[in-house]
Amino acid sequence: MTKIHKYKYLITAYLVSFFAVCFTLLPIIWLFMLSIKSKGETFTKPPKLVFDPTINNYINLWGNDLFKDTFFNSIFITLISIVLSITIALFAAYALKRYQIRFKTAFMQWLLLAYMLPEFLFVLPMFTIYQTIGLYDTYLGMAIIYQVHVLPFSIWMLRSFLEEIPKEIDDAAVIDGCGPLQAIYRIYLPLIIPGIVATAILNGIWVWNELAIALGLTFFDAQPITVGVASFRGYASIDWGGMTGSAIISMIPMVLFAAFAQKHIVKGLTLGSVKG
C-alpha cells in the first residue's frame, strides 16, 4: 500500500511538472511560430499549425537600424547597471554585517519599501533632473535610475549571503591585519561568488525587461530593446512579424546568460536561504 501511494505521488509530481512546463513554454512556442510565418499566414482562421516557415522577419530585423541600436543599447545599460549595483551592494552588505550601525533595521525596511515602489513614480521627477544635468537619454543615466530598484534587492541578497559566513572568519581576518577592503576582496568575495552571480543575473533580467522608465527617460540614443520591440506597433497597424521576431531575439541573451551560469544561480539562491 505504501508503494502504491509513493507511485501516485511520483506520478502526480511528474504530471504537475509536465503541465507547468507546457504552460510556460506554450506562449513562447506560439510567439516563435508567428515570427516564422509570412504576413498572410499570421492570422488565418483556423490558425495553421503546418506552414512553410520563413526567416524573412529575422533578416529584416537585422536590417532595421532602430532594432539593432536598441538591442546593443540594452546590453550596455544592463552591464553598467549590474556592475554598479553589485559593487555598491557588496560594500553596503559588508558594512551591515561587520559594523554596529544605528537604525540598521529601519534602513533595511526602507530598502524593502524602495524596492516595492512602482518604477513610474520616479520618472517624472527624474525627467526634470536628468534634463538639467545632461543624463537624459544616456546609458549612465538609465543605469543610475535603475539602481532605485536593483540596488535594494542586491543589498538584501548579498547581505543574506554574507550572513552565512561564520563570524570567526571575519575575526581571523582582522587578527591577520586585513582591512575592510582586503577582507572583502580576499575573503568574502571568493566565498559568495555564486550569490553574486545569482544576484547579477536577477538584476540583469529585470533591467533587460524594464519598459516604464525607459519610455520616460529615453528618446533615441539610449532606448533599450523593450522600446525597440514596442516600436513595431504603429499608429494604425502592427508589424507582427517584426514584433514577434524581435521579442524572440530579445529573450536569447538572458536565456543564454542564465543557462551558462545555472550552477552558480542554484548554489547562490540556496546559499542565502537560511538567514535573511
Outline the fold blueprint.
Layout (H helix, E strand, L loop, with lengths): L1 H34 L20 H6 L3 H34 L5 H13 L6 H11 L5 H25 L3 H9 L4 H12 L1 H17 L2 H6 L7 H6 L9 H21 L1 H10 L5
What would you say about this model in short?
74% of the residues lie in helices and 0% in strands. The chain is an all-alpha fold and 276 residues long. It starts with a helix and ends in a 5-residue tail after the last helix.
Described by strand count, sense and barrel closure, the largest sheet is:
none
Strand content: under 5%
Question: Between the first and last Cα atoms, what is the distance in angstroms?
Answer: 41 Å
Q: Regarding CATH, which class?
A: Mainly Alpha
Q: What is the radius of gyration computed over CA atoms, rounded to a whole number of angstroms?
A: 23 Å
Low-confidence stretches: none
The DSSP helix count reads: 13
- The CATH H-level superfamily is MetI-like
Give the % helix.
over 70%
Write down the overall mean pLDDT.
84
The CATH topology is given as MetI-like fold
Q: How many discrete structural domains?
A: 1
What characteristic shape results from the CA principal axes? globular
Description:
The protein is mainly alpha-helical. The chain has one domain: Orthogonal Bundle (MetI-like fold). Helix content is 74%, strand content 0%. The two termini are 41 Å apart.
Notable features of this structure?
74% helix, 13 helices, mainly alpha, MetI-like fold
